[in-house]
Amino acid sequence: MDISVIIPLKNEEESLPELAAWIERVMNEHHYSYEIWMVDDGSTDDSWSVIQNLSKSNKNIKGIRFQRNYGKSAALNEGFRVAQGNVVITMDADLQDSPDEIPGLYKMIVVDGYDLVSGWKKKRYDPIMKTIPSKFFNWTTTKLSGIKLHDFNCGLKSYKKKVVKSIEVYGEMHRYIPVIAKWAGFRKIGEKVVEHRSRKYGVTKFGLERFINGFLDLASIMFVGKFGKRPMHFFGALGSLFFLVGFIIALYLAVMKIAYLQYKMTDRPLFFLALLIMIIGSQLFLTGFIAELVTRNAADRNSYLVEEVIDHKKPEEVRL
Ligand code: UDP
Ligand code: MG
Question: 162: CA distance to ligand 1 center in Å?
């Protein structure tokens, strides 16, 4: 199968028939074999019965219905698990992303060899409340992750099958899929300017809390990606640094007291600061040990993504 399209959706009943028909048209024009996974993320409107009807008239349309609303990341993750196509394309259900972009995104994966291609809504049809913070968000993410993308959170993306089978998204981490993919070792990450349209039906499902959650998620992803398998290197280094600074201050106060001035240690405010810093330092250090114990118990502590193996056995014996 050439393409799996994954569409996370919540309360998008009006858009679905139009979207399905449009995708179908594009796929037929280009003679792609395809499937469409509509993942109903706990809709309270009639989205699910619309999906049921669509799937009756087109066998390429498949559906998953969550028992309740888990969030866009969970819906994508579920789609990633079931997708069969060699190229996986995600898009929003609200018709803001155009299915006409599918062939271009597909070609960048199969012809140009990208692992992941993210859409870039260069001309964006969203309220200014969204576009300005989003610029700041993209800038920060580029600076921290080293990935040069203009639009991390674009719903329209294409992936090599291997990428979606190797990554996991949860919480609200769909905004950082390129960062997660990079940490998993997929380096060829590209960008394609895509057409964006204003929302035709329904309302946006994300409010301003997206920015707070967004930055917290970025902090977790950066931390887990870098130190997930060696937390002591983070907590140990930071803890030792804190402790050392506190100790030097305390030592300085002690030397000054004995050598020159006869003050009480507790008369010096700096003394309390030194104590505080030393306590924080030791706590960070000990947190490092606990984190090591936790990661030691993680089921995937020794799972690495292998790209290729050279082994002098018959090809079918080589296990990747
Ligand atoms: N969505 C979802 N679960 C949620 C929230 C949103 O599956 O909890 C879907 C939504 O139906 C849409 C896509 O995620 O298909 C993007 O959401 P939305 O259009 O509201 O975001 P915006 O375009 O405003 O950033
Ligand atoms: Mg939208």
Answer: 25
